[in-house]
Structures are given as structure tokens and as C-alpha cells.
Request: fold
Amino acid sequence: MSIRPWVVLVGGFLGAGKTTLLLAAVRELETRGLRSAMILNDQDHSLVDSELASLHHVQHGAVTGGCFCCRFSQLIEVIESLRLHAPDVIFAEPVGSCTDISATTLHPLLELGDAYCVAPYTVLVDPLRAETLLHEDADPNLSFLFKKQLQEADLICLTKSDICPTAPTIPAQSVRQISARSGQGVAAWLDEVLSGQLSSGSFLLEIDYEQYARAEAALAWLNAKASIDLRNPASPAFVLGPLLQSLDADLTAARIQTVHLKAIVQAETGYVKAAMLANGQDPAVEGILDASPARHHELLLNRIHPGKATLYARAIAC
Ligand SMILES: Nc1nc2c(ncn2[C@@H]2O[C@H](COP(=O)(O)OP(=O)(O)O)[C@@H](O)[C@H]2O)c(=O)[nH]1
Ligand SMILES: [Mg+2]
Reply:
């Protein structure tokens, strides 16, 4: 492995499985004796993804307040600060609504010359999301972002093959299927992106920046934190489960669509993380589900929906 770290950008729509894959990739590289780090990205602070990286003991940094494209110098600062830990591979996850990464991030990294080995740009696709967003009735803003992400990928991976074994038709030359949960395809994907055989940044988008700005502005973000003190101790799962259930019911009643909702509840006895990609969906849960009851809990919640943030604030207050 080169002393220059690999920088591996992994994009894809909200909830595609980027963070989950990167955590699995870090574990896989560890078994090969390689050190990794992760860079997360969001419009705001208090990221569930960063907290998850901490809980998995992964060296990480974050670019906040905007995408990698408009925070490129911050991205370089974070890469350089992570290099103090001498990682062989630095994974970077752009925010799920971001596109034009190839031109605005990958190419500028390549132009830095010898500093880094820049891997091909992988875009992850959740098969169920693809079905919805490639449908003719799809929300035009979400569909625009999703299709642009596909167009600029050097490599597309359909995720969650453990629960979605049949692949939808994706307009791309070659598509792999992986599952970070079962491990299917993860090692092969790493071999491919770290082989140096594939070219990086081959597809530059033609993109109408006004339309892109409109599509991104049509999404509202909420990053919330809360401390919860219970009269009767309960496990983190017993705190988060009912909370998500009533939040989902309130939002659905207010006709507010969930695009991605993720939350972590931590207590001294353990943590639980849950995520939903649509209203009424059973949350995907991970962590220590049978942690002992505790009185004090810390909640971190990130949520994205189409529309104005004020609408959301009204629903959560109900
Ligand atoms: N069944 C299954 N679920 C997955 C897999 N990868 C991710 N997920 C779930 O998909 C949701 C979104 O994953 P996340 O990694 O946060 O997506 P991101 O927004 O692209 O970073 C979470 O609930 C994950 O647990 C997978 O391989 N199989
Ligand atoms: Mg993520």
C-alpha cells in the first residue's frame, strides 16, 4: 500500500447505505492490517453518522455547513488532520443530496498531484429508492438529484442485497450488488476501488446549477439534540422506539414526507440507532438492543424532508 493515502469518495442518495458500507469497509481493511479513517458531511453539526463512527471507534472528521464542493478547503484540512493517524485509506461520504462531486471534488483532488491516490467515485443506490425515484410520478427535485448522482458515478453499487436480491434496471454501464449487512461484495468492491485499475472522475456532469440549487433548497434539514431524564429507568431501545413511532404518526398525520430520519439514543448502558427512509416504515435498528435500563439518555436526531423546515417544527411540536 502506498504511503500516500487513498481517498475514496462514496456518494449516493439519502439512506443509500453509505455510512453502513464505510463502517463495514473499515472493518474489512482492519483484517488486512490496513488503517482507515472516515470523513462525514452534512449541512449542520450534530451528525448521527459521526456519532456512529465514534461508537465504532473509527478515526473520523466532518465537513459541516455545506457540501464538499463548496467546502473544499475544509475537506483538505480534515484530510490532512486525519493523516496524523497515518491512515492507508480515507473514506469520504458526501451529503446524500449532493451531486457534481466528480467535477468539484474528485478533479480538484486529482489536480493536487502526488498528495493522494484518488479512487474511482462510487455511487451507492438503494434498489427500492431507485424504483421510486426513477418512476415517472417521482418528486421532480429528488428525482433530478438522484439521476445526476447516477450519471457521474465511476462505479455504481446497488446496496442492501440481503433484503433486495433483485436488482432494478439502472441506466448505467456496469452495476455491482453489495450488502454491508451480510458482507456480500464488500471485499470485492474494496479490491476494485483500491486496485488502481479503474479511472477516477471519468464522468463530468452537465448540470444546470439553478435547477440544482432549487432541488437542494426544496429539502429541509433538522439536526436536533436532547437530554432525556426519565422518572423510571428504561433501555435506549425503549426510549427511541416509542419516540420514532409517535414522531412518524405526527408527521404522517401532518402529511409531511420523510426522506431520511435517523436517530441515536445513548445511555451509560449502551446505545441504539434507528433509521427510516419513508413514513410508516419499520425502523432499521442497530446497537445494543438489550442494554440495561438507565435514567439518563442523550438523543441525536437528523431528519430530511421535502418542504420548509417550519412545517416540520410545527409537526414535532404537536
Ligand atoms: N438490510 C440492509 N440495510 C442496510 C444496509 N446498508 C445500510 N442499511 C440500512 O439503510 C439505512 C441507511 O443507511 P446509511 O448507511 O445511514 O445510509 P446513508 O444515508 O447513505 O449513509 C440504515 O437503516 C441502515 O441500517 C444493508 O446492506 N442491508
Ligand atoms: Mg450517512
About this structure: The chain has two domains: 6-216, 219-317. Residues 310-318 have pLDDT under 50 and may be disordered.
